[in-house]
Amino acid sequence: MRIFLFSLLFPACVFLMFSCGEKPADTIKLGVAGAHSGDLASYGIPSVRAAQLVVKKINAAGGVLGKQVELLIEDDACKPEIAGNTATKLISDGADVVLGHICSGATKAALGFYKDAGMVCMSPSATNPDLTFSGEYPNFFRTIANDAAQARLQVDFAVNVLKVKKVAILHDKGDYGKGAAELARGYFEDAGVQVILFEGITTGTVDYSAIVIKVNSLNPDAVIWGGYHPEASKIVTLMRKKNMDTPFIGPDGVKDATFISVAGEYAEGVYATGPVDISTNPMAILAGKEYQDAFGEEPGAFFDQAYAATLCLLNAIEKAGSTDYSAIVKSLHTHLTDTPFGKIKFDEKGDAIGVEFAVYKVENGVFTEHK
Amino acid sequence: MNPEYLTALILGGLTRGSIYALIALGYTMVYGIIQLINFAHGEIYMIGAFTGLIVSTVLTMHGMPGFGVVFFAAAAAIIYACCYGYTLEKIAYKPLRHAPRLSVLISAIGMSLFFQNYVLLAQTSNFLPFPGLIPDFEFWKPYSHVMSATELVIIVTTAIVMVLLTLLIKFTRIGKAMRATSQDKIMASLLGINVNQIISITFIVGSATAAIGGLLIASHTGQINAYMGFLVGIKAFVAAVLGGIGSIPGAVLGAFVLGLSESVFTGYVSSDYEDVFAFLILVLILIFRPSGILGRDQTQKV
Amino acid sequence: MNMPVLNEIKKSLIAAIWFMFLTFPIMVIKVNTITRTIDWRWKNMMYTGIGAFFLSAVWRYMLRRKEKNQNALEKEGLSIVQKILQVKTFSIPATVLLLIFAIVFPHLFSMHQTNIMISALIYVMLGLGLNIVVGLAGLLDLGYVAFFAVGAYAYALLNLHFGLGFWTVLPVGGFLGAVFGILLGYPVLRLRGDYLAIVTLGFGEIIRIILENWNEFSFGPAGIANIPKPELFGLDLSLSAKTIYLYYIIVLLVIFTVFVINRLTDSRIGRAWIALKDDEIACQAMGIDKAKTKLRAFALGATWAGMGGVVFAAKTAFINPASFTIWESVIILCTVVAGGMGSIVGVICGALLLILLPEYLRDFGQFRMITFGAVLVLMMVFRPGGMIENVRRTYQFKTGETNDIHS
After folding, report:
1. Is residue C139 classed as helix, strand or coil in its secondary structure?
2. Which of B125, B221, B225 lies at the smallest CB-CB distance from A206?
3. Where in chain C is the domain with CATH 1.10.3470?
4. What is the pLDDT of residue B78?
5. Residue C294 and residue C274: Cα distance in Å, rounded?
6. CATH, range C109-396
7. Which pLDDT score is estimated for C155?
8. Residue C78 pLDDT exceeds 70
9. Could you tell me the CA-to-CA distances from A178 to A133, A264, C213, C220, C250 in Å, in that order?
């Protein structure tokens, strides 16, 4: 009975599938996707606020193409399986361009959807090299340097400045951490440096003494870390407590004030790469002040990148003269936008030209740029 | 490799084993009495650590000397963990005493989620630095490169807690009542034992050990966050099962087997597959001894 | 005022004071360890007190009601929902209505809603599969997500390396799931109860860790992207059309699952599972091969997870090991137990509720997960058998007649 009914209704529905129409838009809709809840919320919220600040300013000045800009804010909790839902939500709500996502994994999951729907997506924080290098996502752009550039910088620094001959590489088995560690391993091997250990640790374990003892017995010239700061501080603390003064080099996941506050005195001398210091750029100063006035606290992670990305996206629409996909893409490649990072445009892969990383060292409890 | 390396790995494994043991004790005690996997036990451990951090920071800022801070912070952490354990049992487990066992398990999972997010909302989602409550003892300085003072304190405390627990269970009236309750609740209540009270006491004692564990581990790793309890809880549970769940010496033995094998495996093979090795050991031991190393074989009756 | 009311107020007051004390350090004090300042949030204490005062009264009232209901139930035998489900004149039109709703759903709501519904229906399938292992055969499996991962990776990898399509991999995924089910089932045949639970949990973790570490095989934590959605006669569909097509596929699969499991329950194997759950020794004495029966449960349960995994990979288009953590196993187990172990309708309701609830609780933002935890506890406390408890078939012997079957 039910099978009979269903077999009648099913073909009818398949044809109904083609009948989905789209509504005309009277505003420019900017989707903002990223982690706004959960344990990685602190990475996502500043980008929402950046978009809000920029859009408020632009709307007050008459909007884009004479239309007001509307924000569509969607949470993906940095989970790939949720990011797909978030992407379809933004697509069905009629977003024109998307600022996001925050985490590389979630971005990868969402990009396929945007690509099919013909939408430009610009991330302030997804650093996975594949996103631009693979060439699979012509609709993807980012205002942060990628992990390959970062690993390159780390390796050059370790080889040229620290003069290392053999290194140990540890990572957290995560998307970001292991990816960064593998890139570093490749560059080290190219540079003729011996990688004597390449191992993943289990995050959340109570005690890393076994791996630290192992690193100690191999006696490397430097320890390269791929991952975030909570594990990094545990490992550094243990290393220093066991009287190991081996240099420790981390990626931008370590360059966080929490790292110093948690590791305390043991953080001294740790190297980490991170986006170049832009604290002297007048636009960055202004953006920071706007944030202070509006939310009463210091801007958080990836705020400047998100601020720049919002400006680039809206400027591209303005320059393109429409919200047409290929026009926006072309405009992003050709027109310069004034951002906190200076005037930037995007190369053919989608990486921002002129946004770079620098090496920092913890000195007296703060990250200072190592020249 | 050289024997010094092996010694260092074994000492590291002992520390890790002690940490697992402190938490596994709570699991195994609760299991012994009401045959429940107390999924929220890891969260009690986390709350203990948070209370310790809050109290110690407040006291330090009011200028209390180091020793007093340690004492009061530890006392507050243990007392609060006990209260949370007691309340947890009253809310999530007591109304389910006659329900299917899986329902109680789901209730425990719900409580675990609740506690995690309660601390997350009321405090922070970030990592917080935990003060080193344990000083670097002068007399231990010469050996500190082999084993830090904190690690020493962890191992010693675990030993003390285990001895105290064994004494409590073997030689006191409460211990006797606990053993009776675990064997047969109905018979125990017929003999005038207040079964509900004994269950509450078990939760309180288990929570106290978890709080001690929480404090020690937090000062060992130097940081805490709201999710710290979950993974450790799972590992401790594995340890408890490995040793034979319900048996107190079994939990400690299982914890040391787990800690040592993980440490040595990481040292000689690879930390990539550390957890895989831990679980394989578990499967192997359970294949040959289906009730764990020290677990009693339960004869099944029809 | 009479005594019971006074008594209630006294009890509520005690509860309020107790909770104010209990939540004091965590709710009231907030220390900032960097700037070394303390924030005393006394207001929170007040809210806790007021909240605890009233909630504890409601709590006690509900507990009393539950007890009363239970006594009533024991006399009557079945709850209203269960009775309604058994009335054929009601249940058949209801099923038809539900089906029609399921069919028009993607045309009534946006693509986003359809997408969420696909996720929920995948969990329905997983729940039904786990229900075989946990609900029918009584084997507590905490590593069920491993089979889900096997299915998802089967589709992603077979598609990547050999270009196999969705329809080819769907049965392959199911088959691989079954193979892994037997692989897991074989060594743990002797284990019971919680020992089984922890070993299956370990199995799930082992699969995930291998996927994380073995880059050459699974591409490690970077995952696999661009997994294609199923094709429809080679037509070039738009994204929304593809989503709707996938929705119909999963609806069909769920119906197929329900049909198969329904038949299984009534079969020789199903009866053997139930017997095994109730009493292993008696079951053996009846001549049932314990080992075979258990392995069948593991294999048949895992099949659905494998197929669900294939659909999941097609739906998200990107998979990495982070999607297959132990939490997923726990959530699937929750859907089975909260829905009502062994009951098909119950498991469906449980999965829909537990997966859709967090989605629609989005607006609560940060209070989402705490609410979810509380809902789980409350559901178990007040309905320990799940939303819709399974009704066991009973055979009544009436003198003078042939056996009358109440099912």
Report:
1. coil
2. B221
3. 109-396
4. 94
5. 11
6. 1.10.3470
7. 94
8. no
9. 17, 26, 9, 8, 34
β-strand pairing of A120-123 with A194-200: unpaired
CB–CB of B269/B218 below 8 Å?
A: no
The answer, for B238 touching chain C at a CB cutoff of 8 Å, is yes
Q: Classify residue B71 by its DSSP letter.
A: H
- How many Cα atoms occupy the beta-carbon half-sphere of C127 within 13 Å? 32
How far C290 CA lies from chain A's nearest CA (Å)? 35
* Residues B287, C367: C-beta atoms closer than 8 Å: no
Which chains sit next to A, with 3 or more Cβ pairs under 8 A? B, C
H/E element holding C92?
Answer: helix C88-108
What pLDDT does residue B302 have? 47
Q: Given a contact as 3+ CB pairs under 8 Å, which chains touch C?
A: A, B
In this complex, do C370 and B114 lie within 8 Å of one another by their Cβ atoms? yes
Pull the structure tokens for residue B155: 């191992």
Of C23, C191, C376, the CB nearest to B109: C376
Residues in B closer than 8 angstroms to C185, CB to CB, are none
Under 8 Å CB-to-CB from A22, ≥6 apart: which residues? A94
Task: Please tell me the predicted confidence (pLDDT) of residue B211.
Answer: 92
In C, which residues are within 8 Å of A88 by CB distance? 111-112, 115, 239, 243
Q: How far apart are CA A220 and CA B250, in angstroms?
A: 40
Residue of chain C whose alpha carbon sits nearest to that of B82: C22
Chain B hits for A200, CB-CB cut-off 8 Å, are 271-272
Listed in sequence order, the residues at least 6 apart from A2 whose beta carbon sits closer than 8 Å to its beta carbon are C95, C96, C99, C255
**How big is the A-C interface in CB pairs under 8 Å?**
135
For residue range C166-223, what is the model confidence (pLDDT) as tens digits? Answer: 899 999 999 999 999 998 888 887 787 778 888 888 889 899 999 988 888 888 888 8
Residues 236-255 of A with CB under 8 A from B: 237, 241-243
Q: Across all residues in chain B, what is the average pLDDT?
A: 86
Neighbours of chain B (3+ CB pairs under 8 A): A, C
**C113 token code pair:** 């809603």
In terms of C-beta density within 10 A (0-12 exposed, 13-18 middle, 19 or more buried), how is residue B79 classed?
middle
**Contact across the interface for B15 and A209, Cβ inside 8 Å:** yes
For residue C354, give the 3-state DSSP assignment: helix
- CATH code for residues A148-275+358-369: 3.40.50.2300
* Bridge partners (DSSP) listed for residue A28: A69
Predicted confidence at residue A20, as pLDDT, reads 42
Amino acid at B57: T
Q: Which two tokens stand for residue C123?
A: 């969990």
Strand partners, A368: A361
Count of Cβ atoms closer than 10 Å to residue C35 Cβ: 6
Q: What is the average per-residue pLDDT within A306-314?
A: 91
What does the alpha-carbon distance between residue B271 and residue B269 come to, in Å, rounded to a whole number?
7
Under CATH, which number does the domain A28-145+280-356 receive? 3.40.50.2300
Higher pLDDT, C263 or B67: C263
Q: Which of B282, B193, B208 is nearest to B245 (CA)?
A: B282
Nearest CA in chain B to A38: B125
* Token digits of residue B248: 């107190």
Instruction: Determine how β-strand A222-226 pairs with β-strand A248-250.
Output: parallel
Are A204 and B227 within 8 A, CB to CB? yes
Q: How far apart are CA B44 and CA B82, in angstroms?
A: 8
Instruction: Tell me the shortest Cα–Cα distance from B85 to chain A, in angstroms.
Output: 22
Choose from C191, C361, C380 for mutation: most chain B CBs within 10 A: C380
What local confidence, expressed as pLDDT, does residue A17 receive? 46
